[in-house]
Amino acid sequence: MKVLVTVLILSGLGVASQGKVCSFQEVVDHLNLTSNNRAYQLTRPVLDHTHPTVVELNIILYAILGVIEKTQTFIPFLWLTMCWTDERIFWDPDKFCGITELSLPVEMLWKPDIMILEMVEKDNSQPNFYMQVKHDGTIWMDQDVRAVSMCMMDVHKFPFDTQRCNISLTSAASEYKDLQVIPVANSSRATEFSKAWMHSQGEWEFLHLSVSSSNITMDEKDWAQLVYTFVIRRRPLLHVINFLLPILFFLVLDLASFFIPDHHGEKLGFKVTVMLAISVLLLILNDILPSMSNKTPLIATYCIVIFALMLLSLLETIFVAYLMDGDSPDKPMRCLRSEENGSTDKSDMESRQVGSSCTFVSGGEKRDELLPEVEEINNSALGTESRLLLLIVDELKQLQRTLNVHLSSKKDGSKCSHLGRKINNIFFWFYLSTATLFLSILFLAWST
To answer: Fewer Cβ neighbours under 10 Å: the N or C end of the chain?
Structure first.
């Protein structure tokens, strides 16, 4: 009976020991962590000052918020993770019911002063208020960063360009001998993580993320630096549809205008309208491209050369129209009264104006001799019917003279007309071959 009671007492003590309740506050009290304890906040967390603090960094790209070519600014949204060891923090998990980690406010412990060198604006993202602390002194914290950083951009191949923008992380106050920065993941794993966590890319497509570590020297002191290089490529579809294709369509329209007859006035007006449309697109291009660039963008060359070809086409049209004007000269004609024997017969003039008609002849030309039948009718001074017959005969003779004049003028202008058509043909093939060669070279440069 006594043995049974002893076993029950021992088993009860075991259950009581196994049912021990622990709290995080006990761990905090054991570590003597309070909000007023400044020792954990001010000094680097090492027991020997010669020991460097190693900070492991990792960056994951969440989204590309924007790329501004005018100010050469790259705006990524990053997830930054930092991990380091505080040599002053340690507890045995077995003494605290298996508690291996706890969360503490970031103000209670020292944290590395890591900054981004390319930042041009203060980060306004939501801060993280807690860090995770493990029983062996390992501490890590996550932070969302909206980095507005400078990026040297090359828009030579816009809109088929690829940009490389850097995010350089270094300590603001600690030298390399005191604080060292190393990456958690290599370039391939960092790229894989970023593509898996990518939420938004917008106009830009994320291609690759490379990681490199180096030391920088300032004032004869070495500083650890970790550089993340983001390789992004522009999606050109919108710019191709809204800009490149309209200019190409205008070029095709300008080529098609060569098939409009030169003596029609709408050909010149059509070419002027096309040039004005190109000018409007050039204003839009001025708002897209940055004001300064190391190289002239290919798209600017594309617009300038096409504009120059259209200008030459307009000048050629004006010159050919000037030559073609010789085909239809507007020679002045005048109404001449008939003269007989050096005097004017008033009654005969009135008879010739019957039906609101008059006889047109060239200046200084004498009237041909009337047919014998006409003179006989005129001399006999017959009635109104005879005078009308005489008028009809004179009108027929004048129509013949007018046709002869036009035929002679057309013969005189045939040389100018032939020269204009020849210039048109030569310039058309020059225009077509130049435009084709230029576009082939340009698209080859864009693709490479």
So the answer is: N
**Pure H helices in 327-371:** 346-352
Q: Where in the chain is the domain with CATH 2.70.170.10?
A: 21-235
Residue among 343, 312, 281, 304 nearest 430 (CA): 312
Instruction: State how far the alpha carbon of 382 is from the alpha carbons of 40, 390, 406, in Å.
Output: 139, 11, 36
Residue 289: CB partners within 8 Å, gap ≥ 6?
Answer: 69, 155, 158, 297, 299, 300
The continuous run of DSSP H or E covering 275 comes out as: helix 266-288
DSSP 403-435: HHHHHHHHHHHHHHHHHHHHHHHHHHHHHHHHH
Q: Who contacts 134 (Cβ-Cβ below 8 Å, separation ≥6)?
A: 100, 101
d(CA 177, CA 255): 70
- Residue 115, SS3? strand
21-235: CATH topology: Acetylcholine Binding Protein; Chain: A, (2.70.170)
Q: Residue 161 corresponds to which tokens in the numbers above?
A: 């360009």
In angstroms, rounded to a whole number, what is the distance separating the alpha carbons of residues 26 and 54? 29
DSSP single-letter state for residue 201: -
- Distance between CA atoms of residues 304 and 181, nearest Å: 49
